[in-house]
Each structure stands twice: as structure tokens, then as C-alpha cells.
Amino acid sequence: MEPADGHPTIQHCIRSFEPYLAANRRTEKPVIHISLNPHPDDVLTDEQLTAIGQEYMEKMGYGNQPYIIYRHEDIGRPHIHIVSLRIDEQGKKIKDYKEWQRSTAVCRELERKYHLLPAEKMERRESLPLTAVDYRKGDIKHQIANVVKPVMQGYKFQSVKEFKALLGLFHVTVEEAHKTIKGKTYHGLVYAATDEKGERTGVAIKSSKIGKSVGYEALQKKFVKSKQ
């Protein structure tokens, strides 16, 4: 369902992913993260970047998949990130045979069509090869850390609800913990694995056991940075 104002939030986007993820729990890396980086001398509008992203996904066989395209400038020039799923609506894994070679060919084709300068880094790049937590495999703290740290570094979110929605893709949940001692309130976070139904399972892990980079203060700073 589209929001009334026509501007989908991260929650709307994540909801569109959920039926696909539920249809196939066997694929270890169901989420695909793509980065397309045109040449620094190419000046492209948001509309052009969107069109390039859409055509790329069509030609790579992901055109019918739900996906999010967002503009980023963390490397000093405009480029786009695309997040999608390797699982189709029937629960089948999208074919990825010789995907890197096909990606290179598609990028060269798009460069010619849009009269872009050749850019080696325009090829698809999976910078977040995240694996969903499997509570049956044990070593939960290590599994959760391997999800939480990259998500904290690689994505933008402005609330605990948005952060939780992202982590939910990888079978992880997060809760705020508040404790008052001698009149002073302390804030923290606890992480836990979730089962196939998205319900918390096993023992919760305090953020301090994983590291300050995924703690309460780091998360608050992340919200401010994301809003900026």
C-alpha cells in the first residue's frame, strides 16, 4: 500500500520485501546490494540516475523485483545504490550465472546510450554481502555482529523503528534498554536473533558485548548524520 503523501518510508519499502523473503528461507544471501558509479566528469540529474538504475535492473533480470534506488555522494561524486532481492515472488532464486560479466556488458551498453565517459567502477559492486542469522547454527553473538556492524556503517536510518526494519531482513531484532540507578538513567541496546516468523528467539546480546560502534550513543549519532 502506497502512503497517502506519495512518499514511501523505509518501512513501506521493507514491507514490499517481506513476502519474497518469506517464500524462501533457504537462500543464505537473499539481499543484493549494487553500487553504480559513473565517471566523476559526468553530470547526471536524479531523473537520469533513476533511469540508469531501472534499465540496469531490467537488463540484469531484476526488473520485476522490488528494489530501492537511492542517490549517494559519500565518495565525492553522485552515484546510486540499489538494494533488491535474489528471490522472486514464487520463492525461486534469481539466476546469477556469469552475473559479473553480464553486469560489465550492461554498464558498457548504458554508457553508450547515455553518452557517458567510460568508468571502470560503474560495474556492479556488492559491498555488503550480508548473511541472515540462523539461530540453529549457534555462535549467535558472532552472527549478529556480522549483520549489525555492516548495516550500521552502510545504510541510513533515522529512528530505531527504521533500524529494526532493516535488521529484520537478516533475522535480527534490536530493543532499547533503560535503567535508572540512584536517580541517573542509563540507556543501552540489546540485540537478538529471530526465527522464521520474525519472533525473537534465544538470549539477547548487549551492544557492549559487540562493540561501541553499535551501541546506544553510536546509534543516536547515526540518526543525526542520516538526517543531515
Describe this structure in words.
It is a single chain. The protein has 228 residues and is of the alpha+beta class. It folds into 2 domains: 10-122, Alpha-Beta Plaits; 135-227, no CATH class. Helix content is 35%, strand content 21%. It has helices at 10-23, 46-59, 99-113, 140-154, 160-168, 216-227, and strands spanning 31-36, 67-72, 79-85, 172-181, 184-194, 200-206. A hairpin with a 5-residue loop joins strand 5 and strand 6 (200-206). Helix 2 (46-59) packs across helix 3 (99-113). The longest helix is centred in the middle third of the chain and has 15 residues, at 99-113.
CATH topology of the largest domain: Alpha-Beta Plaits
**Number of contiguous helices:** 6
Structural class, judged by helices and strands?
alpha+beta
Count of discrete structural domains? 2
Q: Characterize the main sheet.
A: 3 strands, antiparallel
What is the CATH C-level name of the largest domain? Answer: Alpha Beta
Order of helices and strands: HEHEEHHHEEEH
| Strand arrangement across the biggest beta sheet | 1-3-2
Write down the overall mean pLDDT.
82
The number of E-state strands comes to 6
Tell me the helix content: 25-40%
What would you report as the Rg, rounded to the nearest angstrom?
Answer: 19 Å
